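Thanks for the sequence, V.! I ran Exocyst complex component 5 right away. Repeating your input here for the record:
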Amino acid sequence: MAATAELFEEPFVADEYIERLAWRIPGGGSRGGAEAFDPKRLLEEFVNHIQELQVMDERIQRKVEKLEQHCQKEAKEFAKKVQELQKSNQVAFQHFQELDEHISYVATKVCHLGDQLEGVNTPRQRAVEAQKLMKYFNEFLDGELKSDVFTNSEKIKEAADIIQKLHLIAQELPFDRFSEVKSKIASKYHDLELQLIQEFTNAQRRGEISRMREVAAVLLHFKGYSHCVDVYIKQCQEGAYLRNDIFEDTAILCQRVNKQVGDIFSSPETVLAKLIQNIFEVKLQSNVKDQLEEHRKSDAEQYLKNLYELYTRTTNLSSKLMEFNLGTDKQTFLSKLIKSIFISYLENYIEVEIGYLKSRSAMILQRYYDSKNHQKRSIGTGGIQDLKERIRQRTNLPLGPSIDTHGETFLSQEVVVNLLQETKQAFERCHRLSDHSDLPKNAFRIFSMLVEFLCIEHIDYALETGLAGIPSPDSKSANLYFLDVVHQANTIFHLFDKQFNDHLMPLISSSPKLSECLQKKKDIIEQMEMKLDVGIDRTLNCMIGQMKHILAAEQKKTDFKPEDENSVLIQYTNACVKVCGYVRKQVEKIRKSMDGKNVDTVLMELGVRFHRLIYEHLQQYSYSCMGGMLAICDVAEYRKCAKDFKIPLVLQLFDTLHALCNLLVVAPDNLKQVCSGEQLANLDKNILHSFVQLRADYRSARLARHFS
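Predicted structure:
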């Protein structure tokens, strides 16, 4: 059996190779096939196939040896060829070096020859040029210009070059001998200069950028080059200011010029800077002067508004111009231009601001008081007035008639908003118009104005007036409107504090004035809080006084010691009903007038005083058994009213008072047990005894014996 190529399929796997070989041999396949399995025949075929493979291996081996010999021979030939190429390369490289040296030698000779030629040609060119200049000079000397360069208008560029050189030469000539020719050259120089400037002007009007560039390049060496730039600047502005907005027109003009100036002049940044300087010193300065001088002495408000707006728009314009190339230090350049326009207005800005703020604030306040038909009274200070005030604070003695303000608080949120708005605008102007070094000082002066007119002239005056309007505690009819003053003052304090943080703090946060402003704010608030505390204390005393009047007028001795014990049908006394109604109204008013912890503090104080009043009031009566029950009902109602305070201490006091009232009705045998109860165990025995003594049956021996 011959070994075919099919048996050596790639990839070669020995097991698969044996399987394919056995499958091809008759009788070498599966035992269940068409032919019976013949192991001998399979062995014989395998032996024959092995011999064939050995023969094939020998044949392939001989072929491999032959190929190896051929490869070795080729490798030797290739190595020999590479060596020959290397030798050829070395020879070529050597020739290249020789050629390079030769080229360098020739180049040196050529340069030397060029230098020699230049050395000969330069004097020759100068001589030729000098000869031409002498020829032209002779024409001026003769007084008749015949050369085509002077008579042909199309050769103005060449004529300009010649006349510029002749003008330089003429400067070196003695005046006495060549005065006439020097004058003629100067005259021609001036004429050509004017012609070039006129040509530049015409080209600009026609929009011929290339011609403008040529003429500008020629004029660069003339004295009148600056006139060329001036002409360009002047014509640029023609028709540029057709609208009412000079700042927007300026920005558009500079944007347009910036795009073309580089195509015309050799130093565009200088020309653009000169244009901007011209606009600032002429257009803008004139506009600013017209708008400010009109109101400077007659209308401070409009003057300040115009100054702020003009300065803001000028600085915004400056920021836009910073995008252009204006030279090395454009920031300083633009700052100087702005300063030159506004320096005379900014020097005394803060004085105008303070003067306006003072007069405006005074007018706002006066207009308010006039609308109330109120003549503002002076608040006395020092000496006798201070002594009276301290005595009244501590004793509540009527040291003079109280002022009837008919319930007017003399605090207006509209006035406050107007004052704060004026001050806010002043802070904004101050931030924009003040020098950086003067900003904290100026801001402090504005803040001082706010304190003077808002805090002192308005709030403090309202507090003083409110204090003077609080009636004495023994007054029978009291309009306790001071809580309205407290409510409005609290709202105003919040607005004042908000402006302090939002508008003043950013201006002084990094300066020594910060501590000064904080201290001033602290002092004024503490001063007003002290007056608020005094007013609230007096108001609470008045509330207690009103409760006393109600109790005195409504409470009768027979309420707690009725003649007929069986005829009592009421749940609590009329005095209790009216007092509780009054107290609930005052609690509600206090909650509306204050906020935060102040509500709890004031309600606690009122609750303690309310408890003391009821306690002392109950001590004035003698109680029968039914009267004691009615007193307990009254105290229960007072306790219910005390719950509205939502103050644990106040409720605890009334709980204890309710427990004490039980001593008025408890059976004599149970007195000791009640006194040792949870609510009364910690009370002083004298307090317990004082309540027991209020019983109508106290003098009975039996009761006295049980309590002893």
